[in-house]
Amino acid sequence: MTTLTRADWEQRARDLTIEGRAFISGEYTDAVSGETFDCLSPVDGRLLGKVASCDAADAQRAVENARAVFNSGVWSRLAPSKRKATMIRFASLLKQHVEELALLETLDMGKPISDSLNIDVPGAAQALSWSGEAIDKLYDEVASTPHDQLGLVTREPVGVVGAIVPWNFPLLMACWKLGPALSTGNSVVLKPSEKSPLTAIRIAALAVEAGIPKGVLNVLPGYGHTVGKALALHMDVDTLVFTGSTKIAKQLMIYSGESNMKRIWLEAGGKSPNIVFADAPDLQAAAEAAASAIAFNQGEVCTAGSRLLVERSIKDTFLPLVIEALKGWKPGNPLDPATNVGALVDTQQMNTVLSYIEAGHSDGAKLVAGGKRILEETGGTYVEPTIFDGVSNAMKIAQEEIFGPVLSVIAFDTAEEAIQIANDTPYGLAAAVWTRDISKAHLTAKALRAGSVWVNQYDGGDMTAPFGGFKQSGNGRDKSLHAFDKYTELKSTWIKL
Q: Please, are residues 172 and 127 in contact by the beta-carbon 8 Å criterion?
């Protein structure tokens, strides 16, 4: 456990060398156009560096290299046990560089350094090593056949994978994709968000250092409408995996149809209900969980518990507990290890969150906590964790994904009403249920249209449990052995003996 202070982190930030170039075929390189964009820190608005602004020409170069190395078999046909060993080395290098990667993540995205150090980087390393460990333990199948026939069912890597990842957990989400994609033998072209590209750029070199052949992992920073679109439309990208907004997810599906019908796997938005029944076993624990579910990572979480559904008979008792718990989540300098709420990722996102707060006022919801921009003098983008009471599920703040620390409190009277409100959303990513009644817990969980349901906790699970959504929250699953389905093709081979 590091004992670095805020002053230590600030000095390291001053000394840090920022790499902003693309990574293609094992080398850092400028964009073909020579274009760059400014990488600004939400911590204080400082310029961190210039980042390559890749476009279709860079996508073409990266995909050609990825295809060539895939076809060579140097990685795709390597024994699974050898790919496993390399992936474990890759994970180990992330751990060795944990402080550097954590600092990049915090400066680039604004999250607290303690979270980057203790959650994001270790979680990313685990995603790589877990997938690597699994790959030589996955067996193919032999079909049930007549005695003079042999039916084989085998998995093969899909080929070239395009991976577009979000800005809120830049390294962790990248590694949720890279773990199974690389372990199964694919080549990958990774496009990080232009809002937070630095850790993806950095780990590309660590992949080569670990022994992953040059060209297997390529990283193209740039904008979604340029290089992201180019990857989605590329005729030689076999699979596209994406985490981000539902709006962009839908557009990527269109691009697939307009190009080569590439497989599209999407983890999109969420408006997750956190349901607290009157018989919850511990209201204080539920209140603290409700506060963290909206304030953690500045509310920039696809599974944020942004709708708090409270049984009406306990709302007057429970809501003050949530308001009090939220006082422990106070924005501060992300380089201070004591900070638990950092800056929103950039000015655009801050203004979006503030516009939703204004919409809450306009629609008649009652502001009971937070609601303002703070620490403006720092040059950073900080917004207080916010609670609106008296929210109708039809209101904008209850229906749309805010991606910021804004909580809508909605009262209900019966379990049936809670389920109806919870499911009354285009999304279906996650939900939580608080009750001491085991039957109510099971029946409610079954009725909720969500990919993850947590009971008497919020945000449970680990690498062994699949993660993904129902409805317009997407398709396919990250994490667990189910994730390997996205990166492999099933082949049936029928042999007459």
A: yes
Domain map of the chain by residue range?
6-268, 273-461
Place of tokens 């000015």: 347
3-class state of residue 174 by DSSP: helix
Q: What is the CA radius of gyration of the chain?
A: 23
CATH of domain 273-461: 3.40.309.10
Residues in CB range of 11: below 8 A, 6 or more apart: none
Q: Catalytic: 267?
A: yes
CA 379 vs. chain centroid, Å, equals 26
Catalytic residue chosen out of the listed positions 54, 105, 302, 311? 302
Q: Which of 349, 471, 467, 448 is nearest to 406 (CA)?
A: 349
- Alpha carbon 484 to chain centroid, angstroms: 17
302 flagged as catalytic:
yes
Determine the Cα–Cα distance for residues 381 and 343; give it in Å rounded to an integer.
5
**Catalytic option among 105, 194, 267, 401:** 267
Tokens of residue 134, six digits: 């699994």
Residue 2: the pLDDT is 72
Cα(311)–Cα(105) distance, integer angstroms: 39
**What's residue 1's pLDDT?**
59
The angle subtended at Cα 218 by Cα 212 and Cα 221, nearest 5°, is 145
Angle at 188 between CA 180 and CA 349, to 5 degrees: 90
Residues forming a β-bridge with 218: 189
Question: What is the spatial distance between Cα 196 and Cα 344, in angstroms, rounded to a whole number?
Answer: 12
Contact 176, 203 (CB under 8 A): no
Q: Tell me the pairing of strands 386-389 and 470-471.
A: unpaired
Crossing angle, helix 121-135 and helix 98-109, to 10 degrees? 120
Counting as low any pLDDT under 70, the low residues of the chain are 1
Q: Which CATH class is domain 6-268?
A: alpha beta
Q: Could you tell me where the DSSP H helices lie in 282-346?
A: 283-295, 312-326
Give the type of residue at 257: G
Name the residue type at position 379: G
pLDDT digits (tens, 9 = 90+) for 420-436: 999 999 999 999 999 99
Phi, psi of 74 (to 5 degrees): -60, -25
For residues 85 and 90, give the distance between their C-alpha atoms in angstroms, rounded to a whole number: 9
Rounded CA separation 267/357 (Å): 26
DSSP reduced 3-state for 222? strand
